[in-house]
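Entry type: protein chain
Record version: 2
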Amino acid sequence: MSLFSTLQQTSNALQAAQIGLQVTGNNIANVNTPDYLRQRVIYTPAPTQAVGNLRLGLGVQVTAIVQQVDQFLEERLRGSRSDLAKGEAEENTYTQLDALIGELSDTDLSTSINNFFGSINDILNQPEDLGVRNLTILRGETLAQDITRLYERVQKVQQDTDDRIRNAATDINGLLADIADLNEKITNMEGGVTKSDAVGLRDQRQQKLTALSELIGVRAVEQENGSVSVFAGGEYLVLDGIAREVYADEESSNGNNFVEVKIKDFESPIQSDTGKLAGLVNSRDHILGNFLNQLDTFAKSFAFEFNKVFSSGQGLTGYNSIDAEHFVDSDSLTEPLDQVGLPFTPENGSFQVKLLNRQTGVTETHDIFIKLNGTNEDTSLEGLRSQLDAIDGISATISLEGQLNIEADQPNVEFAFANDTSGALAALGIGTFFTGSSALDLGVNELVSTDPSKFAASKSGIGIDTDNAVELAAFADRALDSISGTSITTYYKDMVGSVAQSSAVTTGITEGFRVFKDTLEGQKLGVSGVNLDEEAVRMISYQRAFQASSRMIATLDELLEILVNL
C-alpha cells in the first residue's frame, strides 16, 4: 500500500465528513419546517485492498442519504388528521348554529314565543282595549319574523358550507396533480441507480399528502420505484404520474341545489367518511339540514294548529269580505279538499258561520259540513262554496285562479266563523292569524294586522267573551298530534337542546382526535424530527473527523515531500 492509497483513504474520509456536515446543516436549517423528515447519512466501509497477505481497508464511503421515516406511523398520522379535520368542520358548524340560535340572549326565539303568548294573556284582562290586541299582533309579527330570520340565517350557513364543498373539489384536484408530478420527479431522480432518497422532493410530497389527508381520508402506498399510490375508499386517485380528476356535481335535493364531489372517470362520489370534506357534507346535510327541517316543521305545525283555534273564534267585529289565502287549481275544484294539494290537510268535520246584523243585534248560526270519508260525496271547494252561498246574507264565489271569496250581501251584516272541527278554514287560510305554510313565508294575516278588532278572542259570538283567547293563551303548552303529541314550547326546547347536546358530544370527540393526533406527532418527532442537541453532537463529531482527516493529509504531504527530495 503506497502513500497515494493512504491519501485516497484520507480523501474519502474528508469527503464523508464534509457530506455529514452538509446534511447536518440542512437538518438544522429545517428544524421548524412542517412535515420535514430528518435526513441521515449512510456510511459503509470502503472496499478492502490486498497488500501481500494483508487486507487493508480504504476508509469510508457514503452509500446514501435517506430520510428517517416510519411509514406505518405516517399512515396513522394521516388518518388522525383526517378524523380531526372532519371533527373541526362539524365543531365549527355547531359553533355557528349555537350563535344563530342564541338561547342565552334576549333576542332568541324562546323569548319571542313567551312574549307573544304573554300578550294574549293581557287581552283577557283588557278585552275591549284595541291597543292590547294590537300589541299581540305586533308580537305575533315579531315571532313570525324571528322564525323566518333564523331559518334564512341557518340556510345561509348551509349555502356557504356548500360553496366550501365546491371549493374543496378544486383544492383536491390541485393536490392530486402535484403529487402525481412529484411522483414523476422522484422516480426520475432516484431512478434505481442510487440508494439515496430524493429528499427535498419527498418532503414536498409529504406536505401535499398531509394537506390532502386533511381534505379527504386517503391511504398512501409507496411503490418500489419511489412513487406513491393514493387511494380513497377502493378507488385510486393517484397512480405513478397519473392523477384522476374530481369535480363538483350539482344535484337537486329537497328543493335545494347542492354539490357532490365525484370522481370524473366514474361519475361516482368519493368514498370518504373522514376529512374536512366529509365534515362539511355532514354539516350541510345533517347538522344544518336536520335543524332546518325541524324548524320548518315547527313553523308549519305552529301556524296551522294555532290557526285552527284562532279561526274558530270571533273578534270584536266581524268580516264584511274575506279571501282564502291558499288557492286550488282550477282543474281540482270538484275534487275532495284533502286531495287538492293544499299546504295543510283538512279532515272530516264541520264549522259554523255566524252572521251578526248590527242593526238588529241578532246573530244567526249556520252549520257547514266538511265530508272527507273517501266517498263520492266528499266535499270539494265547489261544494263548500255552494254551502256558503246558500246562506242568506252572504255570497261565495271562486275566482278563475281558484281562490274562494266570501262577502256579506248587506252593509249592516258581519260574519265570523266558529267551532271548526275539520281544519278546513285553517287549511284554506280563511279567518286565520298566521299566513304562510313554511318557516320562510310565515307572517300575520293583513286583515288582522290592519284591524286589531278582528283578533278572535271570543268563542260564543262577535264581541261576546274571551273564551277563545283563553285557549289561545294556553296553546303554547297544548299537546299537538302533528308533532307527535308534544307542545310547541316542548318541541322547540327539545330541538335546541338536541343541538346543544350534539355540539357538546362533537366537541368532546374532536378534542379526543386532537389529543390522539398530537400524540402521534410527538412520536413522529422522535423518529423524523430534528433535535438540535443531537445535531450539535453530530456536527462536532463531523468537525473533529474533518480536522483529523485534514491533519492526515498535511502529514502525508510532508512524507511525499521527503520522498521527492531523496
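Comment: Residues 130-190 form the longest helix (61 residues).
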